[in-house]
Design a protein that fits this description.
Elements (H helix, E strand, L loop, with lengths): L3 H9 L11 H10 L16 H12 L2 H4 L5 H11 L2 E2 L11 E4 L14 E9 L2 E6 L7 E6 L5 E5 L21 E2 L3 E3 L6 H8 L3 H8 L11 E3 L3 E2 L10 E4 L6 E3 L13 E3 L7 E4 L2 E4 L2 E6 L3 E6 L7 E2 L1
Antiparallel strand pairs: 1-6, 2-3, 2-6, 3-4, 4-5, 7-10, 8-9, 11-14, 11-18, 12-13, 15-16, 16-17
Helix pairs in contact: 1-3, 2-3
């Protein structure tokens, strides 16, 4: 049985395929080799091939019964409706594995015009959707778009098999906070952020207690600690960074630094997507956080309050 993750795994391996390197021809050839052809039409190398890519992924997965095959988006929507998997609501928050469709002729919801583009929802983080799309700029690549963007026509949710879910383990009684012994020995991988979270204090307090002028620490260092050890809650709510839509671009850096202008590895585009939201993996140094982006992977981002970023 095919899961949403199976489909996304296949789609991901085509990222980087372009018309200029001729890679799209393999996608089109595979689609044309599958019979019967939709409306009896053989796709040419000069045709738009976004839906050909979506169909090819399901063909490769041996799962065309979940989606049907087509090379025209509006006709594919008709198939989705027959399969009972179509949702006209372009404002909803989709799930990974959903098929997203667009109508570029309208920029407001509800958008029920003629659909002319299609792809896969790879992930959803807060109000940010990351997709994988064929024939996007003549290539297979990711797009980042805001939930409810006016160009979204609607979604199809194929009847995927459920992923295996581990049985829940009975939770242990909550631990009682214990007093620290006053010191913490730094181990490899520790950051001041991690240590502060463990002892219920903050980075600045630890730095003040230990006369630290920077956030640099080394394995084996012994730090004076104030506060109490916090037991791990059953469910940990992680913090996130919101980059406002008023920001046209936002620099991101290697996690190892340096975090200075001119050393960025790329630019995010909050304004283009009505703002961006990322989960914080950890704090690297004061006001610098590690996040994971679809375009650049794990990166560092400077998000002091003065920048307009919001930590929530």
């Amino acid at each position: 049985m095919t899961t949403a993750q199976n489909i996304l795994t296949i789609a991901k391996k085509y990222i980087g395929t372009t018309e200029s390197n001729g890679g799209h021809k393999k996608i089109i050839d595979a689609y044309n080799a599958h019979k019967p052809l939709a409306v009896g039409y053989k796709v040419t190398y000069n045709d738009d091939w976004c839906d050909t890519f979506v169909s090819k992924v399901f063909i490769e997965a041996g799962a065309t019964a979940l989606s049907g095959t087509e090379c025209g988006v509006e006709r594919h929507i008709a198939i989705f409706k027959k399969l009972g998997i179509w949702d006209e609501n372009g404002s909803k928050t989709p799930k990974p594995g959903d098929i997203i469709t667009y109508n570029w002729g309208d920029t407001t919801q509800s958008n029920d015009g003629f659909a002319d583009h299609i792809g896969f929802v790879e992930s959803v983080n807060g109000i940010t959707i990351t997709t994988i799309e064929g024939n996007y700029g003549n290539a297979v690549k990711r797009r980042v778009i805001k939930v409810g963007n006016g160009t979204i026509r609607g979604y199809a949710r194929p009847k995927y098999a459920s992923a295996t879910v581990a049985k829940p383990v009975a939770s242990k009684p909550a631990a009682t906070p214990s007093k620290s012994n006053g010191t913490h020995t730094v181990v490899k991988g520790d950051t001041l952020w991690d240590i502060a979270q463990k002892y219920g204090t903050d980075v600045q307090t630890i730095k003040s207690l230990n006369g630290l002028k920077s956030d640099l620490i080394h394995a084996g260092d012994k730090l004076n600690i104030a506060g109490t050890v916090k037991p791990k809650p059953a469910v940990s709510k992680k913090k996130s960074i919101y980059l406002p839509k008023s920001a046209k671009t936002w620099r991101v850096y290697k996690t190892s630094g340096p975090y200075t202008t001119g050393k960025e590895v790329g630019l995010l585009a909050p304004a283009q997507y009505g703002g961006l939201d990322y989960e914080i993996i950890k704090m690297l140094t004061t006001d610098v956080y590690q996040i994971k982006t679809s375009a650049f992977g794990n990166v560092a981002i400077y998000a002091a309050k003065s920048t307009g970023a919001t930590i929530k």
